[in-house]
Design goal:
Low-confidence stretches of chain A: none
Distance between the termini of chain A: 55 Å
Largest sheet of chain A: 6 strands, mixed
Number of helices of chain A: 17
Helix content of chain A: 40-55%
Largest interface: A-B, 148 and 147 residues
Number of domains of chain A: 3
Order of helices and strands of chain A: HHEEHHHEHEHEHEEHHHEHEHEEEHEHHH
CATH superfamily of the largest domain in chain A: Glucose-6-phosphate isomerase like protein, domain 1
Number of strands of chain A: 13
Shape of chain A: globular
CATH class of the largest domain in chain A: Alpha Beta
Oligomer: homodimer
CATH topology of the largest domain in chain A: Rossmann fold
């Protein structure tokens, strides 16, 4: 058990008296030089580097954290996952009992001894890519569609939206993307009223083919198409499980498959993201993205301190379990990553917001933190006041790029915008850690506000894939170390049941639900 | 001092053994009927109602919280604020020493004994509205502009964006809005490349006229305009302080004024929001919005338990200081409020993320929580897993509307989308509070997850104004009760100083800054 481990004890002790970064003899040039890990030796193009001198760690802490990862078999569990062992499971109480193979959705490039299960999943996934390639070729030839609207929610929405926004620079001519996710009727109305439906391809995404929001919005879309004299069947594709209600050639131009071993929040690199990314940016860009993700999946299996996702997972656990911080902010200094924090929020909080361990026992330690974030410099002008001077400490993961995406820049007052952006990121990171004493208590900065920077070369498709995988694997590692199941989501079920009771009331069915009736009374004026 | 008050002691005791909402004898129909407050008697159209049976409170707790508000003179401090007394201040250390009069920016409709200062501020603000009215009349006559791009960051961006998105339904013909905020060069490039600059009005917003991001982006915009053979002066207006560098008729078609007593995060109802809202939605819609805000400002002065913003502030303090929760989620079940949580995050965290009291003493209790949020039902499919079953409890403020905005809806499986939306919101609220026991620990819901619902009739301009003021005044009340200064933001200063040192390095100036030089080395491949 987590709290019974020797390494846990050691870290507990180290955490009771963490290093003081406001001390200039500690926060030195030498520390900054030493406290970085990098993937650069293996992949020049990516040059991903994690700068962590601004975390409240020492070499002793890092070594103990890696001991913790050994004590909890983190890497061998990662290997089990990528090999297709049943890791979405619990011992002693009912659960999903599934493989977890999102990594196989992209393992086509330099396979290293994949298991039979992983290989099979990869070859099925590759068939879907070939199907997509043909589908897109036909679309390009027909030259009929300019817009794509993805209908989906949760994992079928946040990941694809984050990725498509990040890759906007790579958009093919005359291609635009939209999403309809919310069951709020104002969501669909606004979009469907504003685009040329005759030039629009709709992609419905639901693994089960039964998601309430998605089915409802699909009906609304069909209604709009009918009213314009268009045949829905000529405008719709689906991404769904084989033999689900949405795997139906009478309704869709094409159905692309996903499998029960790809969880919604881990599905961005499957066809859930693939159809939209392929349509907007071309199949080669999509493949570049997959290649980057697969590269990082391999790094996640390496048994050294340059294992970037493991390193990040361990820093998170240090802050969460040994320094006691309950929140983590993710701040990319990149406009293109505008929706990335929202996707990571889902990925992390839905995976690790759990209270029982793999033996179905209530855990006595903290699991997944609250994740939020926004892009810099915007966030500096928003909630950074609290990050600097609030009564809680919020660890931060900064993400930065050496070069801008568009490479259009202008020197204003001797520096370019990209230089201003990086100056701000570095300055925030150092300032939060170092703090500053001032006689005026209102200008006093207590410092010791833990953070680190993930620095990459430029946000291209390959790097984006690597970044996505970095976070997916970080979250999985934390789950392995906490000994929880990061791959189910029972917490969202109970609300659905009660929502259905409310729907019965709205449909004027006879339901024994007094409290619900009282709520409906609130709706009368 | 906060922790020495009798009411604090009482609440501390009550908080040590809060009511158990999972007990069916406690969470009753009667409780739900009783535990609501409402503004409906005064303003039928608005019908704002706060449903709080799902908070861990009793009548005793509520009464004690109102005692706390009396002990801390919360309402008389609110009166001081609205009257223009110097409330942005500290005793014993240097601070801004300013009035705080954003409420005067909208107090034109039913003035109730305003002070001399407030009256003067209102009449100055009204002059700007008249100026705007004339400016828009001319624009409408010339029929030259279709797009408006606001250049601004922080308060000059998040509030206006949240409001404009919320009011999209009210858009005048051929009007589109955009924002350029980030210093990331990719932000401006993407927008400026995609719109017809000859039909675009730019509005630069900076109170001081010296904000780095805004000045930089303004230069980039001018450069784009020049390259298209357009004269920047014919396309630009500004919102700024009188006599600032941006108050310059040689550069702008018109300059609209703001004053040092309107803080950035409280400026959405001033010309900071006004120019864009007026351009897109017309001056009457803007005035309706102001009317709603002013109505809620008056409610904030009332000495009873129907004072909605005070009530909400007290619930927040109960959860923060007596139940020990460090975060608060804001979840509007409304697509139109997509960007509202981001604005409230800034409003709240920049205001109350402070560690010293008004006497410049370090405080021993928690101040402003971490605020985050997203719209429902989307959020249910994202981070709600952790809200239901995570190891931390995160209080939630739900916001719902009886009617959708567009009133375009379709019955699918016997119910309309709006009914599905409300069913989900109610179900989440109840489920989080009640929980559910299950033999399978993975399907067990511990409940007692505090939340409340703010329910309004429909999201029209008037209601949006009331909502904005509700949150502005809630945040101010919490600051009054915690005895902190909610109106300055010293925490963002230190980062700026260090960023400038980095900029000097980039500009190849001779700076003694070894650590900075090391960071720049990271940028080389």
């Amino acid at each position: 058990m987590f709290t019974k481990l020797k390494s846990y004890e050691k870290l507990k002790k180290l955490g009771s008296d963490p290093i003081d970064l406001t001390n200039k003899d500690i926060f030195t040039l030498d520390r900054i030089k030493k406290m970085q890990i990098s993937s650069s030796t293996r992949e020049k193009k990516l040059d991903l580097r994690l700068l962590y001198a601004t975390e409240r760690v020492t070499k002793d802490v890092i070594d103990s954290l890696f001991e913790l990862s050994k004590d909890t078999n983190a890497i061998s569990k990662m290997k089990d996952m990528q090999d297709g062992k049943i890791v979405n499971s619990l011992k002693g109480c009912e659960s999903e009992n599934r493989k977890v193979l999102h990594t196989a959705m992209r393992d086509f490039f330099e396979q290293k001894n994949p298991s039979k299960e992983a290989k099979e999943a990869s070859s099925l996934a590759y068939k879907e890519i070939e199907k997509l390639d043909k589908f897109l070729e036909k679309i390009n030839k027909d030259n009929k569609f300019e817009n794509i609207v993805q209908i989906g929610i949760g994992g079928s929405f946040l990941g694809p939206k984050a990725l498509a926004t990040a890759l906007k620079k790579y958009t093919l001519k005359n291609r635009e993307f939209y999403f309809i996710s919310n069951v709020d009727p104002d969501d669909s109305s606004q979009i469907l009223d504003s685009i040329d439906l005759s030039k629009t391809l709709f992609v419905s995404v639901s693994k089960s083919g039964t998601t309430l929001e998605t089915l409802t919005n699909e009906e609304i879309v069909k209604d709009f198409l009918h009213k314009k004299g268009l045949n829905p069947k000529d405008h719709m594709a689906s991404v769904t499980g084989k033999n689900s209600p949405m795997d139906d050639p009478s309704k869709y131009l094409e159905s692309f498959y996903i499998w029960d071993y790809v969880g919604g929040r881990y599905s961005a690199s499957s066809m859930v993201g693939g159809v939209l990314l392929g349509f907007c940016f071309g199949i080669d860009t999509f493949k570049d993205f997959l290649k980057g993700a697969s590269y990082m999946d391999k790094i996640a299996l390496e048994e050294d301190q340059n294992n970037l996702p493991l390193f990040s997972a361990l820093l998170g656990i240090w802050n969460r379990n040994f320094l006691g911080y309950s929140t983590e902010a993710i701040i990319p200094y990149s406009q293109a990553l505008l929706y990335f924090p929202l996707h990571l929020q889902q990925l992390d909080m839905e995976s690790n917001g759990k209270s029982i361990d793999k033996n179905c026992e209530k855990i006595s330690y903290k699991s997944g933190p609250i994740i939020f974030g926004d892009i810099g410099t915007n966030a500096q002008h928003s909630f950074f006041q609290l990050l600097h001077q609030g009564t809680d400490i919020i660890p931060i993961e900064f993400i930065g790029f050496k070069k801008s995406q568009y490479q259009k820049d202008l020197k204003v007052k001797e520096t370019k915008s990209q230089e201003k952006l990086l100056s701000n990121m570095f300055a925030q990171s150092i300032t939060l850690a170092q703090g500053q004493k001032n006689k005026n208590p209102n200008k006093n900065f207590s410092g010791n506000r833990a953070n680190h920077i993930l620095l990459a070369n430029q946000l291209d498709p390959y790097t984006l894939g690597a970044l996505l995988s970095y976070f997916e694997n970080k979250v999985a590692f934390q789950g392995f170390i906490w000994d929880i199941n990061s791959f189910d989501q029972e917490g969202v079920q109970l609300g659905k049941i009660l929502a259905n009771k409310f729907l019965d009331l709205f449909a004027k069915k006879d339901v024994d639900f007094d409290i619900g009736k009282e709520y409906l009374k609130f709706l009368q004026l």
